[in-house]
Amino acid sequence: MKNDLILFLGLLGVALGGMIIFQFNTDIAYTSNFPTDELEAREELIKSFLDEQSYLQSRIVSLRTQIDEAQEEIEDQSETGNLALLKSLEKSIGLSEQTGQGLEIVLDDSHFADRGSDELTPKDVVQASDLRDIINALDAAHAEAVSVNDQRIIATSAISSVGSNILVNNAHIAPPFVIKAVGDPEIMIRSLTNKDLLSDLYSRIEMSQLEYTITIEDFVSIPIYNGDLKTLHLNLVEQ
Q: What distance in Å separates the CA atoms of residue 173 and residue 8, rounded to the nearest whole number?
């Protein structure tokens, strides 16, 4: 009985050993270690990434369109600003006609001058300095544009005398001198009637040595400057 038990255990050990050896020598079919729900989660993550990528690409296209529109708007504003600046510069140097409410001032020699009186003195005729004084008074009153006998006055305009002749912008002009100014009439009149500012002129007017009238006009037209433009201080600006 004991011997049968030993024999049985021996055979059982051999059988188990054979099974173990057979298991190590047999190829095991590959099976995934990931559960199905984890694979589905990865697929959802990939799909979400692709959707987000597509959205970002569409946003890039939209933003590029907005950038292009903004650049075009900036260019339009720049062109408008440059045009406004150009018009302002043209106005300041007298290269555009100026119209609006303003004054017409007439300054003339004494009425005795028509009679050829031998008693006439330089104070009985209009001097270049008289015109300069009136123009300076108008500038002080912020006149937008000024002309003398249709000669536009700009910053570089010269008003001088050669003998009995008066030159404005190197053009000969003769009395009566019609000075036109565009601007606020009330402010300009206050400046032109200031006897402290124009003391010499008013002393001669009161002695009937000069004719002087001021008229408010609803519409005054100042012509374009037609003299020489000095380019000594102009510089080229590179864009």
A: 149
Q: Cα(first)–Cα(last) distance of the chain, in Å?
A: 117
Task: Examine residue 161 and state whether it is found in any structural domain, yes or no.
Answer: yes
A 10 A CB-CB count for 125 gives 19
Read off the pLDDT of residues 16-48 as tens digits, 9 standing for 90 and up.
555 555 454 545 444 445 566 666 777 777 777
* pLDDT given at position 26: 47
93 Cβ contact partners less than 8 Å away, ≥ 6 residues apart: 154, 155, 225, 229
pLDDT of 96 higher than 60: yes
Query: 213: domain CATH number?
Result: 3.30.70.1880
Q: How far apart are CA 170 and CA 90, in angstroms?
A: 21
- Which tokens in the block code for residue 12? 């059982």
pTM of the model: 0.61
Residue 20 lies in a domain: no
Q: Please tell me the distance from the alpha carbon of residue 86 to that of residue 78, in angstroms, as a whole number.
A: 12
Q: Determine the structural domain holding residue 46 and report its residue range.
A: 34-92
